[in-house]
Model the fold of this input.
Amino acid sequence: MKLYNFPFSGNCYKVRLLLNQLEIPFEKIDVKLFQQETQLPEFLAKNPSGKVPVLEIDSETFLSESSAILTYLARDTKFFPSDRLPQTEILKWLFFEQFSLAANLGRPRVWMKVMNQTEQMAPMIAYHQKLGNAALQVVEDHLTQHSFFVNENYTIADIAIYGYVHVADEAGYDMSQFPAIGAWCDRVRSQPNHITISEDKKPVS
Amino acid sequence: MKLYNFPFSGNCYKVRLLLNQLEIPFEKIDVKLFQQETQLPEFLAKNPSGKVPVLEIDSETFLSESSAILTYLARDTKFFPSDRLPQTEILKWLFFEQFSLAANLGRPRVWMKVMNQTEQMAPMIAYHQKLGNAALQVVEDHLTQHSFFVNENYTIADIAIYGYVHVADEAGYDMSQFPAIGAWCDRVRSQPNHITISEDKKPVS
Done:
């Protein structure tokens, strides 16, 4: 497998983390996102929406949307049980993450940490942070009652939500408001074969 | 089953449409979203994120996130085939819809059509429309080549994307730019047991 990857992206990190925890070897291909490499025809042929991550599973099959990739890789493993209700609960959190967390945490993080646009984008940052804080409170309340998101087991719901939540401080969020999230982040980091967002296992081709 | 529903919501419509096409009887319970009824303790006990739709499948089990509900209902039907690759492709479009379409079409639609805030929210509307138009172009390009989103069959990917896309004009989008989307909307409307966003089958309790 080949993973088209951007190191800073929380969405790419989710896939790298799961690949490592499943001990699936992969070749990592870093793309120059901010130099518009994902808008070139050869990349758009792999993913017409021009986004990373993309997972090439064979020379003709390219998977995109990080959360869909997680379900593909984790199918029939403990990270994504096949029973109907737990699977629906995991998908619920995956959709919650993409709708209510990813943009609200990810975009301010890019503007603040990469683009140096904290002042220029202040109204947009405030708009996303208001929505993001409400979503983080839902997560906090859940994790006050539960060790992990679904059935007290570490699954792709945890991986998906960890991707941006563990770097929310880089998007200007005051995470001291969310102690249960902090404790859960520690539990996620203690899972076997965990890697940080800046770590790579050696890519194997 | 009971569906906690808000008639104007594209996300609620997706679930009503699939329930009708699966010929599953349900009791529809309209909630007063704009009067904050979804923020009351009795609703938050059903869905802590305070959003509709919520599907009550028994007195203790409440499903939320419209896309997750679609996967639950369509499991083992032609609307959500169980093979690994088509299922991943359908999920890809479901996540694409929630990340790249739902907020960008849904929020301007509320501000413009419900709240009468077209002028006041003009910068936010423009921000979402820029992102939304890029996502609609991805959809348009796909539908130029395909009758439906995955494997040329009508699935929950079509239902999910139709929910907000078919009312994108109400969010200020010029849909004459997207003729393949218009033709696909006609194909969606011609499916058996289709209902419009303002139609209800008689709820059966």
User: Anything to note?
Assistant: Strands of chain A lie at 2-5, 27-30, 54-58, 61-64.
